[in-house]
Amino acid sequence: SSGINAEWPLRPGSEGVTILAADTNKDLEITSEEFTSFCQNSLDTSRTCTDLWKAVLSLQANPYWKKDETATSFFIGEHSYFNGGWHEKAHSKIGWAFPWRGTTLDTIRSSVDEMKQVLSPVDEMLQANMDNDRMKAVMDCEPKAEIKADFSGCAASLLSYNAVPTNSRPEDDTYASTEHPILGLKYPFPTTIDITPVPNPLLKLAMCLVQRGHLTAADMAKKMGCELIPKQGCSESREQNGQYSSAYHLNFVTMVTVALVFNLS
Protein backbone atom coordinates (compact mmCIF):
# COMPACT_ATOMS: atom_id res chain seq x y z
CA SER A 1 0.00 0.00 0.00
CA SER A 2 1.38 3.41 -0.92
CA GLY A 3 -0.78 5.77 1.10
CA ILE A 4 -1.82 7.53 -2.12
CA ASN A 5 -5.55 8.04 -2.06
CA ALA A 6 -6.76 9.74 -5.22
CA GLU A 7 -8.00 9.07 -8.71
CA TRP A 8 -5.35 8.98 -11.41
CA PRO A 9 -5.88 11.73 -13.99
CA LEU A 10 -7.12 10.44 -17.35
CA ARG A 11 -7.73 12.51 -20.44
CA PRO A 12 -8.46 11.49 -23.99
CA GLY A 13 -5.58 11.87 -26.44
CA SER A 14 -1.90 11.82 -25.58
CA GLU A 15 -1.42 15.40 -24.40
CA GLY A 16 -1.50 15.51 -20.62
CA VAL A 17 -1.94 11.76 -20.29
CA THR A 18 -0.14 9.95 -17.50
CA ILE A 19 0.80 6.31 -17.16
CA LEU A 20 -0.72 6.45 -13.67
CA ALA A 21 -4.08 6.12 -15.39
CA ALA A 22 -3.13 2.61 -16.51
CA ASP A 23 -3.23 1.39 -12.92
CA THR A 24 -6.97 0.82 -12.91
CA ASN A 25 -7.15 -1.16 -9.65
CA LYS A 26 -4.79 1.24 -7.80
CA ASP A 27 -2.43 -1.49 -6.59
CA LEU A 28 0.67 0.39 -7.83
CA GLU A 29 1.41 -2.38 -10.33
CA ILE A 30 0.65 -2.00 -14.04
CA THR A 31 0.15 -5.30 -15.82
CA SER A 32 0.33 -6.00 -19.53
CA GLU A 33 -3.48 -6.12 -19.74
CA GLU A 34 -3.89 -2.83 -17.90
CA PHE A 35 -1.34 -1.08 -20.12
CA THR A 36 -2.85 -2.44 -23.32
CA SER A 37 -6.28 -1.12 -22.35
CA PHE A 38 -4.78 2.24 -21.37
CA CYS A 39 -2.81 2.41 -24.62
CA GLN A 40 -5.78 1.63 -26.85
CA ASN A 41 -8.11 4.06 -25.10
CA SER A 42 -5.84 6.94 -24.11
CA LEU A 43 -2.77 7.16 -26.34
CA ASP A 44 -2.68 8.73 -29.77
CA THR A 45 0.27 6.81 -31.20
CA SER A 46 1.38 5.22 -34.45
CA ARG A 47 3.30 2.52 -32.60
CA THR A 48 1.79 -0.73 -31.43
CA CYS A 49 0.87 -1.05 -27.78
CA THR A 50 3.10 -4.13 -27.60
CA ASP A 51 6.14 -2.08 -28.64
CA LEU A 52 5.32 0.67 -26.15
CA TRP A 53 4.87 -1.88 -23.39
CA LYS A 54 8.34 -3.29 -24.06
CA ALA A 55 9.77 0.22 -23.78
CA VAL A 56 7.92 0.82 -20.50
CA LEU A 57 9.12 -2.48 -19.02
CA SER A 58 12.71 -1.57 -19.86
CA LEU A 59 12.29 1.40 -17.52
CA GLN A 60 11.59 -0.80 -14.50
CA ALA A 61 14.33 -0.46 -11.89
CA ASN A 62 16.18 -3.61 -10.91
CA PRO A 63 16.97 -3.64 -7.19
CA TYR A 64 19.47 -6.16 -5.83
CA TRP A 65 16.93 -8.93 -5.35
CA LYS A 66 15.54 -8.49 -8.88
CA LYS A 67 18.75 -7.88 -10.82
CA ASP A 68 18.56 -11.22 -12.65
CA GLU A 69 14.80 -11.15 -13.21
CA THR A 70 12.92 -10.04 -16.32
CA ALA A 71 10.19 -7.50 -15.56
CA THR A 72 6.65 -8.54 -16.48
CA SER A 73 4.86 -5.66 -14.70
CA PHE A 74 5.67 -2.00 -14.20
CA PHE A 75 5.66 -0.96 -10.56
CA ILE A 76 4.76 2.63 -9.68
CA GLY A 77 7.54 3.62 -7.32
CA GLU A 78 10.52 1.61 -6.12
CA HIS A 79 12.35 1.57 -2.84
CA SER A 80 15.66 -0.21 -2.40
CA TYR A 81 17.47 -0.40 0.91
CA PHE A 82 20.78 -2.14 1.45
CA ASN A 83 20.95 -3.70 4.92
CA GLY A 84 24.14 -5.44 5.98
CA GLY A 85 27.09 -5.22 8.30
CA TRP A 86 28.64 -7.25 11.09
CA HIS A 87 29.30 -7.46 14.84
CA GLU A 88 32.71 -8.02 16.40
CA LYS A 89 32.42 -11.04 18.71
CA ALA A 90 35.86 -12.17 19.81
CA HIS A 91 36.74 -9.27 22.10
CA SER A 92 33.62 -7.13 22.55
CA LYS A 93 31.00 -9.85 23.02
CA ILE A 94 29.04 -8.47 20.04
CA GLY A 95 29.34 -5.01 21.54
CA TRP A 96 30.87 -3.38 18.47
CA ALA A 97 28.40 -3.09 15.58
CA PHE A 98 29.44 -2.02 12.10
CA PRO A 99 26.31 -1.43 9.97
CA TRP A 100 26.41 -1.28 6.19
CA ARG A 101 23.07 0.38 5.49
CA GLY A 102 21.70 2.92 3.08
CA THR A 103 18.77 3.81 0.84
CA THR A 104 19.95 3.26 -2.71
CA LEU A 105 16.78 4.07 -4.65
CA ASP A 106 13.55 5.77 -3.60
CA THR A 107 10.98 6.83 -6.18
CA ILE A 108 7.92 6.40 -3.96
CA ARG A 109 6.00 9.56 -3.17
CA SER A 110 2.96 10.32 -1.02
CA SER A 111 0.78 12.19 -3.53
CA VAL A 112 -0.42 11.86 -7.11
CA ASP A 113 1.24 15.13 -8.13
CA GLU A 114 4.61 14.00 -6.79
CA MET A 115 4.31 10.62 -8.48
CA LYS A 116 3.46 12.35 -11.76
CA GLN A 117 6.72 14.27 -11.40
CA VAL A 118 8.71 11.08 -10.84
CA LEU A 119 7.04 9.39 -13.82
CA SER A 120 7.07 12.45 -16.09
CA PRO A 121 9.89 11.06 -18.29
CA VAL A 122 7.70 8.03 -19.08
CA ASP A 123 4.74 10.28 -19.86
CA GLU A 124 6.92 12.40 -22.14
CA MET A 125 8.06 9.29 -23.98
CA LEU A 126 4.49 8.08 -24.47
CA GLN A 127 3.26 11.49 -25.64
CA ALA A 128 6.12 11.99 -28.11
CA ASN A 129 4.76 9.40 -30.59
CA MET A 130 8.26 8.57 -31.83
CA ASP A 131 8.90 6.19 -34.70
CA ASN A 132 11.03 3.10 -34.15
CA ASP A 133 14.35 4.75 -35.01
CA ARG A 134 13.81 7.75 -32.76
CA MET A 135 12.57 5.58 -29.91
CA LYS A 136 15.60 3.30 -30.22
CA ALA A 137 17.92 6.32 -30.23
CA VAL A 138 16.39 7.54 -26.96
CA MET A 139 16.29 4.16 -25.24
CA ASP A 140 19.84 3.21 -26.25
CA CYS A 141 21.49 6.55 -25.58
CA GLU A 142 24.09 7.13 -22.89
CA PRO A 143 23.80 10.60 -21.32
CA LYS A 144 26.82 12.81 -21.81
CA ALA A 145 28.81 14.10 -18.86
CA GLU A 146 27.45 17.64 -19.21
CA ILE A 147 23.84 16.38 -19.22
CA LYS A 148 24.51 14.33 -16.09
CA ALA A 149 26.03 17.38 -14.45
CA ASP A 150 22.97 19.48 -15.35
CA PHE A 151 20.62 16.91 -13.81
CA SER A 152 22.71 16.12 -10.73
CA GLY A 153 20.25 18.07 -8.59
CA CYS A 154 17.40 15.97 -9.97
CA ALA A 155 19.39 12.83 -9.22
CA ALA A 156 19.62 13.79 -5.57
CA SER A 157 15.87 14.37 -5.30
CA LEU A 158 14.89 11.21 -7.17
CA LEU A 159 17.37 8.79 -5.69
CA SER A 160 17.14 10.03 -2.10
CA TYR A 161 20.55 8.46 -1.61
CA ASN A 162 21.85 8.36 1.95
CA ALA A 163 25.49 7.73 2.71
CA VAL A 164 26.35 4.56 4.60
CA PRO A 165 26.74 5.42 8.29
CA THR A 166 30.23 5.33 9.72
CA ASN A 167 31.29 4.15 13.14
CA SER A 168 33.60 5.85 15.63
CA ARG A 169 34.88 2.49 16.81
CA PRO A 170 38.18 1.02 15.55
CA GLU A 171 38.79 1.47 11.85
CA ASP A 172 40.09 -1.01 9.29
CA ASP A 173 43.37 -2.74 10.15
CA THR A 174 43.55 -0.95 13.50
CA TYR A 175 46.03 -2.23 16.03
CA ALA A 176 46.40 -1.20 19.67
CA SER A 177 44.69 1.90 21.01
CA THR A 178 43.32 3.17 24.29
CA GLU A 179 39.81 1.95 23.45
CA HIS A 180 40.77 -1.55 22.39
CA PRO A 181 44.31 -2.43 23.51
CA ILE A 182 44.58 -5.71 21.61
CA LEU A 183 48.02 -5.94 20.07
CA GLY A 184 48.11 -7.15 16.50
CA LEU A 185 44.33 -7.27 16.06
CA LYS A 186 42.89 -6.77 12.60
CA TYR A 187 39.21 -6.90 11.84
CA PRO A 188 37.97 -9.72 9.59
CA PHE A 189 35.71 -7.33 7.62
CA PRO A 190 35.76 -3.63 6.69
CA THR A 191 34.04 -1.27 9.10
CA THR A 192 32.38 0.59 6.22
CA ILE A 193 31.83 -0.13 2.54
CA ASP A 194 30.79 1.80 -0.55
CA ILE A 195 27.26 0.81 -1.57
CA THR A 196 26.40 1.39 -5.20
CA PRO A 197 23.00 3.05 -5.76
CA VAL A 198 20.47 1.12 -7.83
CA PRO A 199 20.39 2.72 -11.32
CA ASN A 200 17.31 4.84 -11.95
CA PRO A 201 16.09 4.25 -15.54
CA LEU A 202 13.56 7.10 -15.27
CA LEU A 203 16.30 9.65 -14.66
CA LYS A 204 18.34 8.23 -17.53
CA LEU A 205 15.30 8.48 -19.81
CA ALA A 206 14.81 12.14 -18.82
CA MET A 207 18.40 12.96 -19.71
CA CYS A 208 18.21 11.05 -23.01
CA LEU A 209 15.00 12.83 -24.06
CA VAL A 210 16.84 16.11 -23.56
CA GLN A 211 20.01 14.90 -25.25
CA ARG A 212 18.07 13.73 -28.31
CA GLY A 213 16.30 17.09 -28.58
CA HIS A 214 12.73 16.13 -27.64
CA LEU A 215 12.52 18.93 -25.06
CA THR A 216 14.81 21.31 -23.23
CA ALA A 217 16.57 20.49 -19.99
CA ALA A 218 14.67 23.31 -18.25
CA ASP A 219 11.29 21.94 -19.39
CA MET A 220 12.16 18.40 -18.35
CA ALA A 221 13.40 19.51 -14.94
CA LYS A 222 10.24 21.55 -14.39
CA LYS A 223 8.07 18.54 -15.14
CA MET A 224 10.15 16.45 -12.75
CA GLY A 225 9.85 19.05 -9.99
CA CYS A 226 13.59 19.54 -9.59
CA GLU A 227 16.15 22.21 -10.36
CA LEU A 228 19.05 22.12 -12.78
CA ILE A 229 22.52 22.88 -11.50
CA PRO A 230 23.37 26.34 -12.93
CA LYS A 231 26.60 26.19 -14.91
CA GLN A 232 27.42 29.84 -14.27
CA GLY A 233 27.02 29.30 -10.55
CA CYS A 234 29.58 26.51 -10.63
CA SER A 235 32.01 28.76 -12.48
CA GLU A 236 31.46 31.59 -10.02
CA SER A 237 31.94 29.20 -7.12
CA ARG A 238 35.28 28.02 -8.50
CA GLU A 239 36.34 31.64 -9.03
CA GLN A 240 35.37 32.56 -5.47
CA ASN A 241 37.23 29.55 -4.10
CA GLY A 242 40.27 30.65 -6.06
CA GLN A 243 40.01 34.14 -4.58
CA TYR A 244 39.67 32.73 -1.07
CA SER A 245 42.67 30.46 -1.63
CA SER A 246 44.74 33.38 -2.92
CA ALA A 247 43.76 35.55 0.04
CA TYR A 248 44.57 32.76 2.47
CA HIS A 249 47.94 32.24 0.77
CA LEU A 250 48.83 35.94 1.02
CA ASN A 251 47.79 36.12 4.68
CA PHE A 252 49.74 32.97 5.45
CA VAL A 253 52.90 34.31 3.79
CA THR A 254 52.53 37.59 5.68
CA MET A 255 52.13 35.78 9.01
CA VAL A 256 55.14 33.55 8.40
CA THR A 257 57.27 36.57 7.44
CA VAL A 258 56.27 38.45 10.60
CA ALA A 259 56.99 35.37 12.71
CA LEU A 260 60.47 34.97 11.19
CA VAL A 261 61.32 38.64 11.74
CA PHE A 262 60.14 38.41 15.35
CA ASN A 263 62.19 35.29 16.05
CA LEU A 264 65.33 36.68 14.42
CA SER A 265 65.18 40.04 16.19
Tell me what the structure shows.
The protein is mainly α and 265 residues long. The chain is built from 10 helices and 4 strands, in the order E-H-H-E-E-E-H-H-H-H-H-H-H-H. A hairpin with a 7-residue loop joins strand 3 and strand 4 (96-106). Helix 1 (32-42) crosses helix 2 (49-57) and helix 4 (120-128) packs across helix 8 (201-211). It is elongated, with a radius of gyration of 26 Å. The protein starts with 28 loop residues before the first strand and ends with a helix.
State the gist of this model.
The chain has helices at residues 32-42, 49-57, 112-118, 120-128, 132-140, 145-150, 152-159, 201-211, 217-224, 231-264; strands at 29-30, 74-75, 79-88, 96-106.
Annotate the secondary structure layout.
Elements: E1 29-30, H1 32-42, H2 49-57, E2 74-75, E3 79-88, E4 96-106, H3 112-118, H4 120-128, H5 132-140, H6 145-150, H7 152-159, H8 201-211, H9 217-224, H10 231-264
Antiparallel strand pairs: 1-2, 3-4
